[in-house]
């Protein structure tokens, strides 16, 4: 352990001061991102929809009165045909259950309300959906990290960057941004830690 500490100290001494600052800035941003993510994971309920299996979703409103309605027939999808075309769906349906309708909801950043409607005359069902408007103010935890290389006025340049978007107000997004870069002509590293405001549409 002592030998490892000596090696780390020696590496630290040989590093350029600016590079050390860049590394520390990136570490600080990543720690802040991790803390925020853990806090949201504890306080926010996880999404129930996955890419692995079909699951029942929460109701739009939990407590709504129900009533029994007599109906002569209900049109359902043939389970054998469903097994051929959508086998994962067939596996998720119990023996005493029938599939009355299917659908695909387009991707959306916010929530989408879904309802199943049955025609009392024909017995056919359909699914109707409506997107909920995004709240004007919303806390986020969108993380991005990457490397870039290309040309600049000083010649070839490369950098490593990280961005953490934590707040949205309307179409305005507020982020923390850290970047470390060097150029081939001048190997003196440069570091940035900035607040960022951007508009997305």
Description:
With 201 residues, the protein is α+β, with helices and mostly antiparallel strands. It folds into 2 domains: 2-43 and 136-199, no CATH class; 57-133, no CATH class. 26% of the residues lie in helices and 33% in strands. The strands form 2 sheets. It has a 4-stranded antiparallel β-sheet, covered by helices on one side. A hairpin with a 2-residue loop joins strand 4 and strand 5. The chain is elongated and about 80 Å long.
Give the overall average pLDDT: 82
Shape type: elongated
- Ends: how far apart? 52 Å
Question: Could you list the spans in which at least 5 consecutive residues all have pLDDT below 50?
Answer: none
DSSP summary: helix tally: 4
Order of helices and strands: HHHHEEEEEE
Strand order of the largest sheet: 3-4-5-6
Give the C-alpha Rg. Answer: 27 Å
Oligomer: single chain
Work out the count of structural domains: 2
The biggest beta sheet, please? 4 strands, antiparallel
Tally of DSSP β-strands: 6
State which percent range the strand residues make up.
Answer: 25-35%
Q: Which structural category do the helix and sheet elements fall into?
A: alpha+beta
What topology does this entry show?
Layout: H1 2-14, H2 17-43, H3 79-85, H4 87-92, E1 112-118, E2 125-131, E3 137-152, E4 155-169, E5 172-183, E6 190-199
Antiparallel strand pairs: 1-2, 3-4, 4-5, 5-6
């Amino acid at each position: 352990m002592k030998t490892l500490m000596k090696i780390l100290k020696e590496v630290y001494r040989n590093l350029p001061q600016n590079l050390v600052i860049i590394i520390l800035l990136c570490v600080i941003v990543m720690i802040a991102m991790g803390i925020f993510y853990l806090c949201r994971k504890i306080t926010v309920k996880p999404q129930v929809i996955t890419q692995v299996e079909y699951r029942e979703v929460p109701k739009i409103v939990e407590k709504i009165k129900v009533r029994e309605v007599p109906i002569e027939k209900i049109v359902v999808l043939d389970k054998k045909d469903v097994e051929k075309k959508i086998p994962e769906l067939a596996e998720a349906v119990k023996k005493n259950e029938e599939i009355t309708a299917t659908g695909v909801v387009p991707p959306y950043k916010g929530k989408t309300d879904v309802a199943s409607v049955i025609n009392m005359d024909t017995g056919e069902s359909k699914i109707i959906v409506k997107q909920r408007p995004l709240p004007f103010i919303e806390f986020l935890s969108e993380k991005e990290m990457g490397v870039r290389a290309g040309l600049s006025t000083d010649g070839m340049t490369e950098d490593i960057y990280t961005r953490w978007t934590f707040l949205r107000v309307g179409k305005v997004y507020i982020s923390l941004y850290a970047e470390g870069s060097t150029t081939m002509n001048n190997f003196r590293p440069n570091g940035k830690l900035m607040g960022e405001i951007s508009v997305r549409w």
